[in-house]
TrEMBL record:
<dbReference type="InterPro" id="IPR017941">
    <property type="entry name" value="Rieske_2Fe-2S"/>
</dbReference>
<keyword id="KW-0560">Oxidoreductase</keyword>
<keyword id="KW-1133">Transmembrane helix</keyword>
<keyword id="KW-0411">Iron-sulfur</keyword>
<dbReference type="InterPro" id="IPR014349">
    <property type="entry name" value="Rieske_Fe-S_prot"/>
</dbReference>
<comment type="function">
    <text>Iron-sulfur subunit of the cytochrome bc1 complex, an essential component of the respiratory electron transport chain required for ATP synthesis. The bc1 complex catalyzes the oxidation of menaquinol and the reduction of cytochrome c in the respiratory chain. The bc1 complex operates through a Q-cycle mechanism that couples electron transfer to generation of the proton gradient that drives ATP synthesis.</text>
</comment>
<dbReference type="InterPro" id="IPR036922">
    <property type="entry name" value="Rieske_2Fe-2S_sf"/>
</dbReference>
<keyword id="KW-0679">Respiratory chain</keyword>
<keyword id="KW-0001">2Fe-2S</keyword>
<dbReference type="Pfam" id="PF19297">
    <property type="entry name" value="QcrA_N"/>
</dbReference>
<dbReference type="InterPro" id="IPR045603">
    <property type="entry name" value="QcrA_N"/>
</dbReference>
<feature type="compositionally biased region" description="Basic and acidic residues">
    <location>
        <begin position="1"/>
        <end position="20"/>
    </location>
</feature>
<keyword id="KW-0479">Metal-binding</keyword>
<feature type="transmembrane region" description="Helical">
    <location>
        <begin position="57"/>
        <end position="79"/>
    </location>
</feature>
<feature type="region of interest" description="Disordered">
    <location>
        <begin position="1"/>
        <end position="42"/>
    </location>
</feature>
<feature type="transmembrane region" description="Helical">
    <location>
        <begin position="99"/>
        <end position="119"/>
    </location>
</feature>
<feature type="transmembrane region" description="Helical">
    <location>
        <begin position="168"/>
        <end position="187"/>
    </location>
</feature>
Length: 353
């Protein structure tokens, strides 16, 4: 059999010639260490004017970070929490949230950008090779690490470039104040007595929540359920949802002889009783009314209240009765509130007495 029939037989073996006396040629290491490329100096390394420009850029970024932190604190203190602002293309959002997010983001971005620019343009970029060593260090290695640290600290130029040092220390000193201000604001954010008050007050006219028209006693029939809110509230108001979540009421007309609770009868007008629509379990809106039993039902967890007996709980997880709103009839023949709710509306909270 000739080599022409099997040409591969004439090629050198890729694994080396294993015949006796044959010499296997040495192969190049495919993973040889190529070494480090030659160091190329940056323009800041050879031109002090360029280094000064980089120093001023870093100082400028640190200064902007400081100013943004101060603006964050001022915005937190000065801007009312209920103020809104229009931001294209997002729309109308909270002015406080927008300003705090913007100023804190600028402060953190400039702080990081200054550090990166400092490291990329002014700190030494020479790569050093350090051989691996056992985990347990010897005194020689410890002394070498300390010497390397001192050398690295000297190469940063922190002691020589006073402008960077001062602005960096200022930025690092001010940036934690953002967190301290937020923590200190917890006392200001406490609800205080706000959970006890609603938009109702003496003389406030009751208007139909669907038609937005003032309610008269003849508008409410026996056995019907009507939802109302204070006159003056508008859906386009920025705090409408917060206000209606506490001020929503339901009106039911009962026969006076069916009302078992004396206080409930005294606080009614022509048999019309007004109760908070907010369930005292987790705050769901009550929407169901049973005419025969005078019970109202929360659809979320089936808490049931008896409107003929002070809206006490007769079933379900609710913890206490629905607060009643004292109502009367004004000179125009409209239903009006004679004050606010006597008890806080909605679920219980830790400050509730």
């Amino acid at each position: 059999m000739s080599s022409q029939e099997h040409p591969e037989a004439a090629l050198p073996s890729e694994r080396g010639d294993t015949r006796e006396g044959a010499v296997t040629p040495a192969r190049a290491d495919p993973f040889a260490d190529p070494g480090l490329p030659p160091h190329e100096p940056r323009v800041q390394d050879i031109d002090e004017r360029a280094a000064k420009r980089s120093e001023r850029v870093v100082a400028f970024l640190f200064t902007v970070s400081m100013l943004a932190t101060v603006a964050f604190i001022v915005a937190y203190v000065a801007i009312p929490v209920d103020r809104s602002v229009y931001v294209f293309p997002i729309g109308r959002i909270s002015a406080t949230n927008f300003t705090l997010g913007l100023t804190l983001g600028v402060a953190l971005f400039c702080l990081g950008a200054a550090a990166i620019h400092w490291a990329r343009t002014l700190m030494s970029d020479v790569e050093l090779i350090d051989e691996r060593h056992p985990v347990e260090t010897s005194p020689e290695i410890r002394s070498k690490v300390l010497a390397d640290f001192k050398e690295g600290a000297a190469e940063t130029g922190l002691g020589r470039r006073t402008l960077i040092r001062k602005t960096m220390l200022g930025a690092l000193t001010l940036i934690p104040l953002s967190g301290l201000v937020l923590l200190g604001g917890l006392s200001k954010a406490a609800p205080g007595t706000r959970l006890r008050r609603t938009a109702w007050a003496g003389g406030k006219t009751l208007i139909n929540q669907n038609t937005l028209q003032p309610l008269r006693p003849e508008d409410i029939e026996v056995g019907s359920l009507t939802f109302a809110m204070p006159k003056g509230m508008k859906e386009e108001d920025h705090d409408f949802q917060n206000q209606i979540a506490k001020a929503a009421v339901m009106l039911v007309r009962l026969r006076p002889e069916d009302i078992k609770d004396k206080k409930e009868l005294d606080w009614s007008a022509d048999g019309i009783v007004a109760y908070s629509r907010i369930c005292t379990h987790v705050g769901c809106p009550i929407t169901l009314y049973e005419q025969q039993t005078h019970h109202v039902l929360c659809p979320c967890h089936q808490s049931t209240f008896d409107l003929s007996d002070g809206a006490r709980v007769v079933f379900g997880p609710a913890g206490h009765a629905l607060p009643q709103l004292r109502i009367g009839i004004n000179k125009d023949g409209h239903l009006e509130a004679l004050g606010d709710f006597a008890a806080p509306v909605g679920p219980s909270f830790w400050e509730r007495g």
